[in-house]
Amino acid sequence: MERIDNFVHNLLVRGIGRFLNKPQMPAGSIAAAELAARAVFNSNVAVTLTATQMVDSSILTSTPTASINFTTDIATNIVGALVGFQVGTWFDFTIINLAAATHIITLVAGTGVTLVGSVAIGPASSGTFRARVDSALAVTIFRI
User: Fold this and answer.
1) Helix (H) or strand (E) holding 10
2) What string of pLDDT tens digits covers the 144 residues of the chain?
């Protein structure tokens, strides 16, 4: 358990910390000030993520007792959660699987969402994704 706690701590400090320094914010991303007050979302069962959870939480954790799916919201809801969006606007989110062994979290696309790259997050690991607005009706999520 200590190894997992260290993993989560390092991800929070090193992974998310890069968003808190405004000069490093790439064009098209959500402003650093908007990310500073985000809460961690946790679910240990299969869930359909709301657009708000995806955009506002940025960190999604789970300690599943069986393999589960995290299904994205539909694209129009994701786009609607991005105030002042334009084509090319993007945000990152990370799914952290805190299971010690065997249980996989799989990201599944909602309507209008396209997934690119590996969508399976194995035990004691994480996956970081970048969601990019393609249009008012479409979002592509890349594993990065």
Assistant:
1) helix 2-10
2) 555 555 554 555 444 443 333 334 455 554 544 545 567 888 999 999 999 999 988 899 999 999 999 999 999 999 999 988 899 999 999 999 999 989 999 999 999 999 999 999 999 999 999 999 999 999 999 999
Tell me the domain boundaries of the chain.
2-143
Specify the pTM. 0.75
Cα separation, 28 vs 93, in Å, equals 15
Cβ atoms of 61 and 40 within 8 Å: the answer is yes
CB 92 within 8 A of CB 127: no
